[in-house]
Amino acid sequence: MSETGSHNDVPEQNLPSEHGAHGGDVAVPDDPFANPGHPPHEFRRQDIDERAAKHSERVTAGLFGLSMLGTIAFIACFVIFPVDKIVFIFPFGNVSALNFSLGLTLAVALIGIGAGAVHWARTLMSDEEFSDDRHSAGADDALRENVEQQWIQGAKESGFGRRKLIRNTMFGALTLVPLAGVVILRDLGPLPEDKLRHTLWSKGKVLINQNTNKPLRPEDVVVGSLTFAMPEGLEESQEDFQEQIAKAALMIIRIKPEDIKDKRERDWAHQGIVAFSKICTHVGCPISLYEQQTHHVLCPCHQSTFDLADGARVIFGPAGHALPQLRISVNDEGNLVALGDFEEPVGPAFWERG
């Protein structure tokens, strides 16, 4: 009986071989992971034609010059157009002339720099590719010297030192663009000057109860109570009410005279009735939490705590200094009145303390 292979056996003639069916050699495929290398470098027109290079230089300088004009126009528009001027611009409709002009001119200034840099890189800077082996993170002296030489070579090939027109216009554009940011800071509003140092309080101004809108009298303030007051003549219907009350708001507390530790506080009070600014000296939050037994008042924002029996000094929290006190007395009609303005600015301390 002859030997036969199983049905899974592959005939010998079907096995791969270095020879073909007729004895010829079979081609071995190339290594698919071989490094193909860089394609041959193709020179640009600017690389071989100096007139084309000069044209690209002028275009790049023109884009940088356009950026400078955009910055100058930005500053001019900021000065020329009033805030409330509305114009119709198709297809946007009615828009603010100031906002539209500032956005348009700033876009021109920034796009000019970007387009100029891109055109310079694509037409004049060297575009020849080269590869280098990966190095370890730590650089030895030879590698540092190699990088330095590459930097020098790159600067030379960019034409930065040779093409003065591009260099000067680029410096001009980069110098002018930040001016747009400096000028727009003016839009934050008028300078405060000494307005933050003054409130509506003055000699003879009656203390008005904010809850009843009636003048405060000494008998209205009992020991342990907390009352909020504002200057006479200030109405909630006024356009600048929030601005004024943010500086002039008062806390009125009555403390037994023998419990007041600070001499000046006692002298500025009336029969134990003291008036302190309601504005926290940390970040300007309104203070409203009063502890009757300890005479402590707490700011709800960051828990700064002030002792109203000891000149409203800070005993806890991030506030920088004591609450300003308003000197008060009583007029001929029996109403509580101020004897002047605060002697120091109210509110946060970061802007007025030298």
UniProtKB/TrEMBL annotation:
Q: Which key words tag this protein in UniProt?
A: 2Fe-2S, Cell membrane, Disulfide bond, Electron transport, Iron, Iron-sulfur, Membrane, Metal-binding, Oxidoreductase, Respiratory chain, Transmembrane, Transmembrane helix, Transport
Segment Disordered: which positions?
Answer: 1-43
Query: Which chain regions cross the lipid bilayer?
Result: 61-81, 101-121, 165-185
For this UniProt entry, the molecular function terms from Gene Ontology, in alphabetical order, are: 2 iron, 2 sulfur cluster binding; metal ion binding; monooxygenase activity; oxidoreductase activity, acting on paired donors, with incorporation or reduction of molecular oxygen
Membrane topology summary? Multi-pass membrane protein
Which parts of the sequence belong to the Rieske domain? 273-337
Is Ligase one of the keywords? no
Instruction: Give the function comment from the record.
Output: Iron-sulfur subunit of the cytochrome bc1 complex, an essential component of the respiratory electron transport chain required for ATP synthesis. The bc1 complex catalyzes the oxidation of menaquinol and the reduction of cytochrome c in the respiratory chain. The bc1 complex operates through a Q-cycle mechanism that couples electron transfer to generation of the proton gradient that drives ATP synthesis.
Q: Can you name this protein?
A: Cytochrome bc1 complex Rieske iron-sulfur subunit
The organism named in the record is Actinacidiphila alni
